[in-house]
Amino acid sequence: MTDNLTVVLVHGAFAESASWSGVIAALQAKGVDAFATPNPLRSVTTDADNVRRAVESVGGPVVLVGHSYGGAVITEAAVGTDVVKGLVYVSAFAPDHGENSLQLTGQFPGSTLGETVRPYPLGDGTNDLIVDRELFPQQFAGDVPLDVAKISAATQRAIRDFALGEPQPAETPAWKTLPSWFIFGSGDKNIPVEGMRFMAERAGSLKTVELDGASHSSMVSHPDAVAELILEAVAHLS
């Protein structure tokens, strides 16, 4: 049994920590400690190092929650530490060793993300990527109120292309050794729903929730449902 679990949330590409605001409010209303830690979006390895330091600073057991590319980060960050007790994937990647986010995006048909991404050279042979701000609402947040989606488009954080193509480092990804839970929307235009079903089944998800028609921004459009699954994970681990 594990007491006093803290929920640490990790945003993904083209998002930022405030995307978890509704989920955090719902968790805190239930008396659960929760915070969103920054995700630099530079590489899986370095991003996971940042998250690992954050969870180890908590001083107690943690449930790690990742959205989108943040799923790849928590999959790596939970390796080699006994602080993390469980993983929750929110419209997120759960890569195996050697896989990467781009590969998993294209493994099943249906993603239209590539048509909306715009690159900005960084001068070292890599690029920062953003989702075209005009196209962001329909691509990323189709079930989010338009005024909110436009703000999300304007505040999105760029991701380095290397991060999306970097092979998952750990030979044994964390979902192979830790309990996991998955939630995602059937209307996701970034990661095909078949891909998320595949990853959830492969990981042995203890519970998988499909949100009818929900977009890739499921934590924004359905914060209570996401929080409810996280609370189930906390209860299971407590």
UniProtKB/TrEMBL annotation:
Gene3D superfamilies for the chain: alpha/beta hydrolase
Domain of life, per lineage: Bacteria
Cited InterPro entries: AB_hydrolase_1, AB_hydrolase_fold, Sec-Metab_Biosynth_Hydrolase
One Pfam family recorded for the sequence: Abhydrolase_6
Name of the protein: Pimeloyl-ACP methyl ester carboxylesterase
Record-level Gene Ontology MF annotations: catalytic activity
Domain called AB hydrolase-1: residue spans: 7-228
